[in-house]
Amino acid sequence: NNYREKAFSINSQLGGEQFHLKRGNKLAKNGDLEGAIAAWQTAINIAPNLAEAYGNIGVILARQYLFVEAIPLLQKAIELKPDYAIAHRNLCAIARDTGNYAAARQTVNQYSHNCAETDPMMTAISSLSIYQASGLNDIAKDRFLELESKLLADFQLVKSEEEIKSVYADFLTAVPYLRDDIEANSRLYRLVGKENRDRFLKPIYSPTQIERKSPTLENRKLKIGFLSNSFKRDSVGWRCADIIRELSQLNNEIYLYSTAEIKSDDLTDKISQAAIKLELPKTYPNGLANAEEIAATIRQDGVDILLDLDSFSNPINLDILYQKPAPVCISWFGIEAPYLSAENYFIGDQHTHPPDREKYYEEKLLRMPDSFLAVSGFQRLVRNRDALRKSHRIDPDQIVYLNIAPGRKLNRDLVKAQIAILKQVPNSILVCQGQGDLEVFQAAYKKACETQEISIHRIKIMPQVAREEERRVIYSWADVMLDSYPYNGCINTLEALWFNLPVVSRTGEQFLSRMGYSFLKNLGIETGISHSWEEYVNWGVKLGKDAVMREEIVEKLVTSKRSPNLAPLWDTKKFAKDLSEIFIELLAKKRNIYVDRKN
Fold first, then answer.
1. At what angle do helices 67-80 and 85-97 cross, to 10 degrees?
2. Is the pLDDT of residue 77 over 70?
3. In the predicted structure, residue 439 carries a pLDDT above the cut 70
4. Residue 270: is its pLDDT beyond 60?
5. Quick one: average pLDDT of 97-126?
6. What is the DSSP pairing of strand 399-404 with strand 428-433?
């Protein structure tokens, strides 16, 4: 090897382009990404039309979020090899994830045209994901149902590790946006979970039973690990930050394990300050974190309880959980439970998971005493309500309904119901804000307005604001929040309630269609809870027309934040205490050890 490296230093082009292409592949697999890129670049210097070398460099750069650098390389790879599937896939993902939805649809259509026969699974999943992210959920649902039918009939269509991970990250994550059918959804989740375990996880990993030398917890702190790629300003970061802080104030040690590089921000700093450490991946084989390495680190740290915050929305978490790196493994958030192991747990509450829900799950359900989540509040910029309304050409006496939801949550029934509310409430408007193709939003609402014969000018479509403190200003000049369905809002609904905005939320069967119900019940509020679109419209109309009713809800929300009436939804100290007690009981049961509850 030393002679070979010395030879390369003298003449980097020794061996020919295929030699350097393979050498780059090997270096990438071992996590030497700089060396891999250098080898592939050498291959290009020898053979300027080598599509695989351009594509490989582009994929690695895309996985490092270096999109500007990655795009021309991926485009060059496709120019040289039009059916180069992995280059197409990464171009599609870049366009989607940077919010260029029209370009993403054009790119995925080209991908399908060139590769549908040779890469049928990934073209189908990519198309579904991009049309859904754009807000074109009628098309996305048709494509979802077609693919689901094929997978239920023959899961052998999924042939590779890359494909099973895409099934999780882009196919299963689409389910709760498109369908509120807990039985059908559970059947699909179980199938994918079983196939993943049997065909893709068992051949790679050997689960390790964790044994602890200490027979009790009396003389040491409980070690709690959190697993996620979102210890930053995003929905998961906002949900977990307060709880992590409160857990650290109890008799616990907090360990954070990231499954990706983090662009640190102030929330990253806040979360990591409560922890013993924030562990980043050490190596990145082929540009991705190493699941075996992360599991080994968790095991070496002696973590007692591992909380997975992403579930199958981040498939590497499933690889880590499968290795059983901690005595007790629990999933919290992340679309749905992982459907990975009957020994593991999934957190909910009595409202998100009524008594009959166990039969739909692989994991055991942990129901919190109150809500499945608690936050201690949110910050926003201070702005004058009347001035804000004036700046948006909204009269002071107009009723402003608010819908904050991404394109993935846009659907025909939701739009129809919201327009029906406007039609019955004179002098009202609807403000929509969310990530997606704004032209698609506009077209969907225009069609509904024409059908129900109201002016499209009563709809204001606004782009997403990047900084949360600025985005949250919108709650100060709205009157009523109209929640999404079948995937309710989580952080957005919590923000609306924190800033004293009445909420109308439709409740369904699946976990994510019961979040709004749980939040309102934990605040002691029945107003706005709807079990059908008819009830949703009726509550929207009542809250729009009845100023006294709105004021009563506002007063309840204000009171819910005051001691001694602090509602469970805002009581992060109680939530952390309850969670710690559950953790200790689970660990005691697992190890059959005595725990002194007084400590």
1. 150
2. yes
3. yes
4. yes
5. 96
6. parallel
Cα→Cα distances 106→77, 90, 111, 126, 171, Å: 17, 14, 9, 12, 20
pLDDT score recorded for residue 597: 39
Tell me if 192 sits within 8 A of 220, measured CB to CB.
Answer: no
pLDDT digits (tens, 9 = 90+) for 364-409: 999 999 999 999 999 999 889 999 999 999 999 999 999 999 999 9
Burial of 246 (0-12, 13-18, 19+ CB in 10 A): buried
pTM: 0.92
How many residues appear in the chain? 599
Residue 44 scores a pLDDT above 90: yes
pLDDT in tens, 527-542: 999 999 999 999 999 9
Return mean pLDDT, the chain: 93
Please name the amino acid found at residue 580: S
Whole-angstrom Cα distance, residue 110 to residue 403? 33
Residue 429, helix vs strand vs coil: strand
Q: Is the model's pLDDT at 212 over the cut of 70?
A: no
**Beta strand extents in 398-447 (DSSP E only):** 399-404, 428-433
Cα 12 from Cα 381, distance rounded (Å): 57
Rounded to whole angstroms, the Cα distance separating 220 from 253 reads 10
Compute the distance between CA of residue 241 and CA of residue 572 in angstroms, rounded to an integer.
10
Over range 80-109, report the average pLDDT: 95
Task: Say how far apart CA 591 and CA 587 lie, in whole Å.
Answer: 6
Closest of 451, 433, 537, 428 to residue 442, by C-alpha: 433
User: What does the DSSP 8-state code read for residue 568?
Assistant: G
Which structure tokens are listed for 14? 């020794």
Task: Convert the pLDDT of each residue in 311-369 to its tens digit.
Answer: 999 999 999 999 999 999 999 988 999 999 999 999 999 999 999 999 999 999 999 99
Helix-helix angle 16-29:51-63, to 10 degrees: 20
Of 51, 90, 137, the C-alpha closest to 405 is: 137
**503-506/480-482 β-pairing:** parallel
- Residue pair 258/229 in contact (Cβ under 8 Å)? The answer is yes
Domains delineated in the chain = 2-201 (1.25.40.10), 222-368 (3.40.50.11380), 385-570 (3.40.50.2000)
Residue 253 bridge partners (DSSP):
223
The one-letter amino acid code at 156 reads Q
CB neighbour class for 181 (10 Å; exposed up to 12, middle 13-18, buried from 19): middle
Which residue type is seen at 505? Answer: S
Among residues 482, 517, 475, which one has the least CA distance to residue 409? 482
CB atoms within 10 A of CB 151: 19
Torsion of CA 485, 489, 492, 493, to 10 degrees: 90
Beta bridge partners of 224: 254, 305
Give residue 527's identity as a one-letter amino acid code: T
Backbone angles phi, psi at 399, to 5 degrees: -85, 125
Tally of CA atoms within 13 A in the half-sphere of 16 that contains its CB: 2
Asked if 550 and 502 count as a contact pair (C-beta separation under 8 A), the reply is yes
Confidence of residue 218 (pLDDT cuts 50, 70, 90): low
DSSP state of 485: S
User: What residues does 504 pair with on adjacent strands?
Assistant: 482
Q: How far apart are CA 75 and CA 461, in angstroms?
A: 33
